[in-house]
Amino acid sequence: MIFESIKESQKPNKKLVITFSDPNLIIHFGSKNSNTYLDHKDKKIRQNYINRHETNENWDEVNAGSLSRFILWGSSTKLETNLLNYLKKFNIKY
């Protein structure tokens, strides 16, 4: 899998869209109407999000749930840092 781009989603209810090639894959993720750790930088709210979602999400595969968890709610408050960590975690070329 090869990372191609990440940008604002044009879907009315999604925050971002990420594009991969080999195979071709486009995933829209994150709720456009909610704040994330990137926005508020509050560690307690971040931990509450993780606790609330960990039982219902598969964070071991590339999907909308793992993208939200590790990019929007990752360990950094910077999108670029979380994106690079995500690509490394899932062994995605860029």
Task: Describe, in plain words, how this protein is organized in 3D.
The chain has about 90 residues and is of the alpha+beta class. The protein is built from 4 helices and 3 strands. A 3-stranded antiparallel beta sheet has the order 1-2-3, with helices on one face. The longest helix is centred in the middle third of the chain and has 11 residues, at about 45-55. The radius of gyration is 13 Å and the shape is globular.
SSE arrangement:
Layout (H helix, E strand, L loop, with lengths): L1 E7 L5 E8 L3 E7 L5 H4 L2 H11 L10 H9 L6 H11 L5
Antiparallel strand pairs: 1-2, 2-3
Helix pairs in contact: 3-4
Termini Cα gap: 9 Å
The arrangement of helices and strands along the chain is EEEHHHH
Q: Compute the gyration radius: what is it?
A: 13 Å
Largest beta sheet, briefly?
Answer: 3 strands, antiparallel
Number of structural units classed as domains: 1
Strand adjacency order, main sheet: 1-2-3
Q: Tally the helices: what do you get? A: 4
| Percent range for β-strand residues | 15-25%
Question: What class would the helix/strand composition place it in?
Answer: alpha+beta
Regions with little confidence, pLDDT below 50 for 5+ residues = none
Helix content: 25-40%
Q: Estimate the global geometry from the Cα principal axes.
A: globular
